[in-house]
Specification:
With about 210 residues, this protein is of the alpha+beta class. Helix content is about 55%, strand content about 15%. The chain is built from ten helices and seven strands. The strands form three sheets. The chain has a three-stranded antiparallel sheet. Strands 1-2 form a two-stranded antiparallel sheet. A two-stranded antiparallel ribbon has the order 6-7. α2 packs antiparallel against α7 and α2 packs antiparallel against α10.
Length: about 210
């Protein structure tokens, strides 16, 4: 089964927990998806890092979801940090990605009721096997059998972003500790975006803990 090249699609699918048959859709999901979308744009040559600031280039992505984000960045009155763009629009991107993947027949969206009363939605991959294949790619990238610099860059990004978000369907806390050095090397290969995502999430959690 061919894995999706889109990091947004990969990370969204990796939030699926096979045990509960549901997606982990906490408040930090939007940050993860924004970071993945920025990474897709950077890999497509649409964005560049200039002294820690995001610079839009003239290339235009085929993906309409990414095109909207690129236009938003290009319209900014001044260069902004990666953290700024990860934080901005984090709520709206969750719905946008879900609708995009539903239209592309990557996921199935069904209505359900919480406690039999409150309306909600249930999202699941159309092909659950693809989640297993993505997890297999993550495990392969973590093996020290090849230098981190030779790991496919999209696989390195997948590992780095999932680790930065501490995505539970992908990593337990113990696994994050065990693979800390390897994750660190893959994160360096991926550049500034995973670092920015980690800072945003830590700052958010600190603010919540402080009340």
């Amino acid at each position: 089964m061919e894995l999706p090249s889109s990091l947004v699609t990969r990370l969204y699918l990796l939030t699926y927990n096979p045990a509960s048959q549901r997606l982990v859709t906490g408040s930090e999901l939007g940050y993860l998806l924004r970071a993945a979308a920025l990474a897709d744009l950077m890999l497509a040559g649409c964005l560049a890092d200039t002294n820690g600031k995001v610079t839009a280039r003239t290339q235009s992505p085929d993906d309409p979801l990414l095109a909207v984000l690129l236009a938003e960045i290009a319209a900014s009155t001044k260069p902004r940090s990666w953290r700024h763009w990860i934080r901005r629009g984090d709520r709206s991107i969750r719905r946008s990605v879900r609708e995009h993947l539903e239209a592309a027949k990557v996921v199935i969206v069904r209505p359900r009721r919480v406690l039999g009363l409150f309306p909600a939605t249930e999202v699941a991959p159309r092909q659950p096997r693809i989640v297993e294949d993505l997890l297999g790619t993550v495990r392969a990238a973590l093996r020290p059998s090849q230098p981190a610099s030779r790991v496919d860059i999209r696989d390195a990004f997948t590992v780095a972003l999932a680790a930065a978000a501490e995505l539970k369907p992908v990593f337990t806390r113990r696994q994050l500790r065990e693979h800390r050095d390897r994750i660190g090397r893959l994160t360096e290969c991926a550049g500034p975006i995973p670092h920015a995502l980690r800072k945003v999430i830590r700052q958010t959690r600190s603010a919540v803990a402080a009340g």
